[in-house]
Amino acid sequence: MGFSMLTINNIEVVYDKVILVLKGVSLNVAKGTITTLLGANGAGKTTTLKAISGVLRTERGEVTKGSIQLGDRRIDGMRPFDVTYLGIAQVFEGRRVFEHLTTEENLIAGGHVLREKGTVREGIERVYAYFPRLKERRNQQSGYLSGGEQQMLAIGRALMSRPTVMLLDEPSLGLAPMLVEEIFGIVHKLVADEKLSVLLVEQNAAMALEVAEHGYVMENGRIVLEGSAASLRENSDIREFYLGLNEVGSRKSYRDVKHYKRRKRWLS
Amino acid sequence: MMIDELSFAFSLVVSGLSIGLMYSLIALGFVLVYKATDAINFAQGEFVMLAGFVAAGVAAVEGMPILAAIIAAVAVMVLFSFALERVVLRPLLGRPIVAVIMATIGLGAILRGLPPLTVGGQTQSLSLPIGDEPFVIGPAVLPPIQVVGVIVSLLFLGAFTWFFLKSRMGVAMRAVADNQQVAMAMGINVQRYFALAWAMAGIVSALGGVIWGSMLGVDTHLALVGLKVFPVVILGGLDSIVGAVIGGLIVGVVESIAAGYLDPFVGGGTKDFAPYVLMIVMLMFKPYGLFGQRRIERV
Ligand SMILES: Nc1ncnc2c1ncn2[C@@H]1O[C@H](COP(=O)(O)OP(=O)(O)OP(=O)(O)O)[C@@H](O)[C@H]1O
Ligand SMILES: [Mg+2]
Fold this sequence. Notes:
The complex is a heterodimer.
Chain A: E1 4-15, E2 19-30, E3 34-39, H1 45-53, E4 61-70, E5 73-74, H2 80-86, E6 88-91, H3 103-110, H4 117-130, H5 132-136, H6 147-159, E7 165-169, H7 177-194, E8 197-202, H8 205-211, E9 214-219, E10 222-228, H9 229-234, H10 236-241, H11 254-263
Helix pairs in contact in A: 3-6
Chain B: H1 2-37, H2 44-60, H3 66-89, H4 97-118, E1 135-137, E2 140-142, H5 144-166, H6 168-178, H7 180-185, H8 190-216, H9 221-226, H10 229-236, H11 241-266, H12 270-285
Antiparallel strand pairs in B: 1-2
Helix pairs in contact in B: 1-5, 1-6, 1-8, 1-10, 1-11, 2-3, 2-4, 2-8, 3-8, 5-6, 5-8, 10-11, 10-12, 11-12
């Protein structure tokens, strides 16, 4: 694995001083790659991203153990807007566009950390080049964009701060497969063109393992499996549990998967 | 006879609009704070009163230019608003909204109690050096202070609207209003924008205090004038800039017309309750006001 852009070192996260959600999580995001973090609902994926971006603090969450590093700079405990200045951008689960602002105003807000107005303009044009559909909708109130357009806007808005690391939380949520493919294609392109490093949280394991180089599987606040995307795709547990495939590669029936879930958890 | 009637109505409307613009300006301060920080400032009227007292106090000093009094009022109100946000309201962040409401109501009562305790209950005068040549528009005659009010209101309404709609900081402030957590992740220092919104509320209160103070004299009644922001913002919509402006104009005109036509029969005072009647009617039929935002339902 190449130079680690983002390093999470054995962190614990506690909400409200008592609810322990992450129980010693470690992971690396290598420079210029997509790393995916997979896991079932409530595993702690979003919490991991919030710990990195620092917005955890706004939800009375706290990193109580371990460290988070961007390059060799320690960032855990920093205020979220300072983390953004250092080059980390978070794309929130459920898109969360500023719905009363227009498309373009969302991008302007995303470029808040840029000093000069000229660079903001440049940034906007760059986003429009990746997502031409946003340009057509530039003056529309973003709350009325379609789900796919909002996801594009959320990613575009995060790009505005010229980040080195992007945290992407379930970009495929609620979108048609074609659109998911389109968006993942653009993310892939971004990584190549902009030397971006991406930590991609997904429930759609098949898609995620296709674009990622490396992956982690989280369950119950712990990393239970780690490996290259290729090895994870071949892993029989992943195939059955996340991809819903059996040994011959055909899709298992829903009942089989349910039965499987009941029989075996990752940690037991 | 007909002509007389018409010109009477016309002058009531003109006078109402000119007073209404001042309401718009104060309401804008209220709306900015509500939009950006979710706080409802029930002490807005007392802010105006406090500014009036500061200006009158400074102006009363021998040889002090009036400009110094105005600057002092603005400076004190900005600092006061900062301090309020920082000391009283920030610890209430994330508590039920009623906590903030109670805090500002309490603050209002304290502020109203201060002048009698310190400078006494009598009305102080505050006069701007603008002569007393009335301004004539057709059949309507405006006292010069109202003309100053109109000019100042238009100037600041224009500047604030530009700031809010066009400047990068204005966009950031609206982003904060929309979603604080996400705004923070965009690198926006949310607390700083809270302070900025409060500072703006302080500025408009200061302007209102100076202008109304010189129109009516400075005493605790100024707080009542400032309280007219409530009918204004309920009419226009608590979180709408355009609403603040339109609401202010409507309230100004309604109270002027009500006073002009009803006062002769009831012996005065209509001005101070007509806007509230309008407010209650509005609440029954259109609780979000004319321009208020509802949450967008689609995702
Ligand atoms: N602000 C909070 N306060 C208390 N507990 C929280 C908070 N946010 C999340 N949790 C809890 O932490 C656990 C992990 O939540 P998290 O959102 O990180 O899961 P996730 O892996 O992103 O799930 P999903 O796939 O459903 O988005 C859950 O049990 C959740 O209830
Ligand atoms: Mg999540």
